[in-house]
Amino acid sequence: MTPVLEIRDLSVDYGQGEGAVHAVSSVNLVLNRGEVLGLAGESGSGKSTLAYAMTRLLPPPGIITGGEVLHHGRDKPAPVDVLGLSPKQLRSFRWNDIAIVFQGAMNSLNPVSTVASQLEDIYRAHRPEMSRAQRTKRSAELLRLVGISADRLGSYPHQLSGGMRQRVMIAMALALDPEIIIMDEPTTALDVVMQRQILEQMMRLREELGFSVLFITHDISLLVEFSDRIAIMYAGRIVEQAASEDMYRASSHPYSKGLLGSFPALHGPRRPLTGIPGSPPDMRSVPSGCPFHPRCPSAFDVCEREIPVLEKLSGTNGDSSRSVACWLNTPSLSGHPGVGAT
Ligand code: SF4
Ligand code: MG
């Protein structure tokens, strides 16, 4: 697998000095070419902050305090650090290489502009060599690609259903054939049937066009169904990463177990819904040590003092791609055989 985007040790604060909130702490994450990487976690866990930071769209008082975001471009000889791009390079990177579909399409579309002119604006800005006729033709193709008839080109956003607006957002994201699409809670405002339709279509487009997807949601059942791999965040850190199947069959981190235990099984026998006691931490005063310790049913003495690092789990049923940040994984400390042991 070849990486297309590599996040290294990325940290983001809101505010500075004593009162700074560490929204994202030393996150390492790799998005491979052509894959769907799911990012899960309760609200406030840092998922969206991470997406904003890696595209340099972080609103103030958000500050990137460290790390790199390496883009391994299709035709580039060496990776480029997105955090070092000039404003001009960044504009080109954002539409040509990476595009974002945010939640709540109504707020992202211009209410006084037709679908056609919003699509064509992208071409006017980024493909000035295209003729008017080419822009119109391409815009109609894009709409068809996302399952909307081309006679909707003249519609204003308020004349479209919520699902159609979200599809228009996807069409806009696809306009310049980017390598990476970030979907941040792309379908939360829609009903369940519509959510599924849109995601299924997105996955078909991915097969056809070959882009990679970073799919962010708090809905773990959608993630399990649509992602190849899943990373789980808690209090600004990745606590577990594994292939989607492995995560679903046997998650290792107590928090992942809680998240996965809080939705009904997709296949196979029914299992009891367990959920997670307590609520996500106040990011202004994150618990010491493992931030999950006040809610963790398996916490022991060291958990309160030391922050566990994300480490590859070895020797677990040939599943070498799993990494977990939990002290249970250090048998010498926990007296426990290790979270991956079966
Ligand atoms: Fe629970 Fe300790 Fe593991 Fe944190 S490190 S998840 S508190 S067992
Ligand atoms: Mg969010």
Automatic annotation (TrEMBL):
Gene Ontology molecular function, alphabetical: ATP binding; ATP hydrolysis activity
UniProt xrefs under InterPro entries: AAA+_ATPase, ABC_Ni/Peptide_Import, ABC_transporter-like_ATP-bd, ABC_transporter-like_CS, Oligopep_ABC_C, P-loop_NTPase
Residues of the ABC transporter domain: 5-260
Listed Gene3D superfamilies: P-loop containing nucleotide triphosphate hydrolases
Biological process according to GO: peptide transport
Main location: membrane
Topology relative to the membrane: Peripheral membrane protein
Keyword Ubl conjugation among UniProt keywords: no
Superkingdom in the source lineage: Bacteria
Record-linked CDD domains: ABC_NikE_OppD_transporters
Subcellular location per the Swiss-Prot or TrEMBL entry: Cell membrane
Keywords of this entry: ATP-binding, Cell membrane, Membrane, Nucleotide-binding, Transport
One Pfam family recorded for the sequence: oligo_HPY
Stated family: Belongs to the ABC transporter superfamily.
Record-given protein name: ABC transporter ATP-binding protein
Organism field: Umezawaea endophytica
